[in-house]
Structures are given as structure tokens and as C-alpha cells.
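Subject — a protein and its fold
Fields — amino acid sequence, C-alpha cells
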Amino acid sequence: MAFDTILVANRGEIAARVIRTAREMGLRTVAVHTTADAKAPHVALADAAVWIGEGPVGDSYLDGARIIAAARETGAGAIHPGYGFLSENAEFARAVEAAGLTFIGPGPEAIRVMGNKAEAKRLMIAAGVPCVPGYEGEDQSDAALTAAAQKIGFPLMVKAAAGGGGRGMRVVRNGADLAAALAAARSEAANAFGSDELILERAITLPRHVEIQVFADAHGNIVHLGERDCSVQRRHQKVVEEAPCPVMTPELRARMGTAAVEAARAVAYRGAGTVEFLLDASGAFYFLEMNTRLQVEHPVTEMITGLDLVAMQIAVAQGSPLPVTQDEVRLDGHAIEVRLYAEDPANGYLPATGPVDLWRPATGPGIRIDAGIVEGQEISPFYDPMLAKIIAHGPTREVARTRLIRAVRETVLLGTVTNAEFLADVLGQEKFTAGEATTGLLDQVYPEGFPAAETRPRDTALAVAALMQHDRDAALARAGYVSADQLGWSSAPLLPRGLTLAEGDRRIDATVGAFPGGWSVGIGEAVFDVELAVNGNDLSARIDGHRVEAVARVAGDAVQIAVGARRLAFRRLRAGSQDEARAGGGRVTAPMPGLVLAVEVAPGATVARGGKLAVLEAMKMQHQITASAAGVVKAVHVAAGQQLASGEVMIEIEEE
């Protein structure tokens, strides 16, 4: 068990997180990376780094043989898998041990049993842990699953037995939808986990998702470190996590904690693990699954317990006993975490790619940012779209919540689209503020999805002023010294000139003129006087007497601006230049880079508005490509198995 070098078999923020703690413990660290991740922070943080492939996970981060070879090549004595990828792969854990290395996690058998929802549920029922009624049988035929579904009743959940993270999971509200849900879940599960085995469970109406953090050592000690409420979810993927749960009582915590410890004991668990439950309004709870790894949301537990869970993982793997007993565990204050994703909530939450042009994480009391990005890096389509975790701690839930809203607003990423505005909006929702969120919150609050906010003319005026000031400063740098009191001065009135911007597909006509200390910007019928002070990327403006603080990046004709939680991007359209707006009409384009899994139509087919055209896989999820208008398919330019770039034309439809 003795080792002095750890290879971290992961990427992004969790790889950086593990490397930092390992180095603080005096251990040498090794990173693995692909060509796509060559500039990623975890590569620079580690003492050594090994290239393991071009980009796709199947040929790199999921290639256990390459990972083990990299460990041997660099003299690593242990492998930390992080979360995702190979972290819950029993065969990989077994291969690590067979290679004479230490796997920083539970034993292979515990991973195998708990990694299969069907087998885990059977074991939990035998151990007396409350479970949701359902079907976890070995007969996986449509007939057996359909018969079981009729006994369970609707609504029910179809779940991948081998998976997690919302992949291979469907809600089925009636029998008519069951066959399609089974087919879709099988396909997604097979692609994500290499197994198409499914289980069925009764859908618990509007529960809370509450999980218990457990920890076990090799000496028979098992403790729980309290709970996390992860109820705010979209498509069964967590968006907001907090600790403790707002409705938790000491008595309920003791019962759920005991059940979680017994679940770990049933598989002779070792290391960090999480037992997930559904908690209904009556206080009844049901076993959901056990994640045999460190969780994405572990920072909220760290912030209320004062414990470093990664350091505990490493110490347990080295043979040390747990540093605390159950009686010594203390919960202090409240912590809330949100996940910053490269995705577009106003466009169906589609994953986004692009550069990290500017990255400025928030700072302040009680604020922690766990990130896996750096300026100049490119967000690729190969990996999960999570970029960073923003966490806030406070003496009360309300202090933590308000600190987190401020941190989301002040954490600025420009270059790719993110969900920052969506996160700030969720944290301000009445039910979340009151601590009443269930797993149905986002569907209740955003039944039609997160609405795209219309850009205010005031913000457009600020962007125009930032663009013009950047141009002026660049010209002055070439012209030589001009005193500040002469800027904007003329012996004769200067007539405003026209300027055209594009924001996505929208064209904005503006006028702009200079005055001492600022710019007069016309947007439609409104005219805004913008007094502007620029300090690097920081803008301090007074717009018609109202103070506005923003962060901006201007490069050529492009200006990106962050105002509060809003992230705006404009480009100047010059006379004679080509408008790069996305093609409209009947041209269906790829909304993101991805792999075509299926094409559902052929030339000559008649399609309805919203009809399914193709299935695109990107960032480990399947996305349906649908028709934006009814018509006849004129041409199909793609085929299953084809890799597409963002904006590539897939299908042409002759609209009715």
C-alpha cells in the first residue's frame, strides 16, 4: 500500500483537484491527457504528464491498458480515477491491482456489485435497506419488461442497470410510450456503459434526491458525513447541490445515515462512496443507487465538515484508519454548489464548444471555485460539458445562497456559451429560496425550457461603446501621445455615424458619436450617453446616469460582455463582409460537433414541424434533431457514423 507517486486517470477540474491535494501531502503526481487536452490545467499542475490519445474517450481516458502503462512508465504506485470514465469500472480496478498498483477506491467486487443497479437493489433488499418497488430481473426481453411495468404501474422509471448521470434513463407515463423508451434507454446505455441491461422502478412523485456520504477504511470502520440535497436536476443530471438538506432532522439523518452505512457494510466497502436515496414528503426514503467513487458535489460536504475527502481517500488507500469517528463528525453552517456548463439553456440546453477567451473565477468570503479550464484552452466536443463548480459556504443557508448568486455573477467566462444566467435564475427562484425544491422544480419553473432573454438596448449601447473605445485606444497607440482632455473634442460638431452589429442571427443598426469622456449611442428610437472608463477587461460605465459594472473582451470586430449573470456576444458587420449568421430556411444544421447515430428520413419524405430527423451524439448524450418547419425532405447530406462539425448542413427541407 505504500506509494509516493499517484497517477490521476482523469481530466478537467477533478484531475486538478486531486493533483493539488496529493502535492500538499508531499506526493508526486502524474497527469494523463489527450491532444485535445494538451493545454488543460491538470497537465501543467502535475509533476509529469503522459499523452494517451487524440481526443475520443474510447481511445484515451477509457483505455485502461494505456492508463496502466502510463503509470508503470512514470513509476506511479497508485491510480486515482476521479469520477466518471473508469472510476466505477470493476475490471479496471482489478487490472490495476493485478499490475501491482494501488487503486484509490473500493475493491473491484464492491464496484461490480454496486455498479449494477439490478444486483445492488437485490442486495439492498436483503440487507434491509428501503428500496423503491420495481423490477430488477435477469429476463431483459421486451415481454418481461412490459409485464413487469404493468404490475408496477405508471408513471415509472426505465434505468440503465450499469449507468448513472441520467444516461439510459427515461420517465414513462403510460404504456403506449414504453416500447420507445425501452429502445432509447437501451441504445443510450449501450453507448455510454457498454451494457444495455435495464431496470424498472415506480416513479416517486416529486421527491427530494438526498444522498449520504459514507467513508470506510481497511480496518472495519465506517462513518457517514451527513447528507447532500441534490434535488435540483435536469434530465436526471444534478444542477444544484447543497448540504445539509433543508428539511433534514437529526432523527431522519440518523436513520438515513445508518441505512447508508449498512449498505456500505454489505459490500465490505473501502474509501469514499455515496448512497443515494429518494425522500418523499412523508419522510419515507428509498435506496436509489450507490456511487462507488468520489462525487462531483463532494465540496459541499468538505465545507460543512472541514474534512478533505481526497486526502482521506489517499490515506485510506495507504492503509491509515479514518481520522474521525461518527461521534466526532460535526456539520458547520451550510454550503451550496452549482455546476458551470458549456451549454446553451435558451437553446434546449445544447452543449457548446469554443475557446476560453477570458476566465476570471470569483473570489470572496466563503467562495470556492473548482475549475478545469484556463484561458486559451478550447472546449472540445469529446467530453462532459462541465467546466467548473462554484461553491459558497455560510453560517446559514440564506447567506450561502446569496453569496453563491454573487459568485455566479462575478465568475466570468467569455468565449463559449455557458449556463451562468440560468444558474443565477434558479438560485433566485421562490421555491429554492424557501428550501422547498424537489426533483420536479425545473419542470415546474421552466415548463417550456429556459427562456431566451431579449438583449436590452442599454446593454447593446454598452457593447457599442466598448467596441468604439477599443478602436480609439488602438488608433491612439499608433498615433502617439494625445492628452486625455482632448479625447472626444472637436472644433466643429461631429455627426454620428452608422454601425451595424450582429447578435447571433439578429442585426442591430446603431449610431455612435463621441463626446468628452464617452459615447452617444443610438439604438432604434433610444439614444444613450455612455461615460466609459476602461481598466483592462473591466468596464465602469454611467449610462444616462445609471452606474453599470461589466467585464468585456474586444478582439477585432467581436465584442463579448458580461453584465451581472448575462453573457452577450456581438460582432460588427462591415460593408461588403459576409454575414456569418447560421443558415435558415429549410437547411437543418448540426447544432454542435457530434457523431451521427441515426438518420430517420430519406429524400422525398414528408415531415411535420418538430418531427424527428436524426440523432446526434455529443458530450456523452444523445440529441434529437427535429424539423423546424413542415415540408418535404429535399436532400440528406449525412449518414450514421459520420462526425460533424458545428453548423454543418445535415438535411434540406422544402418548406410547405
Summary: The chain has five domains: 5-104, 133-202, 208-445, 457-572, 587-655.
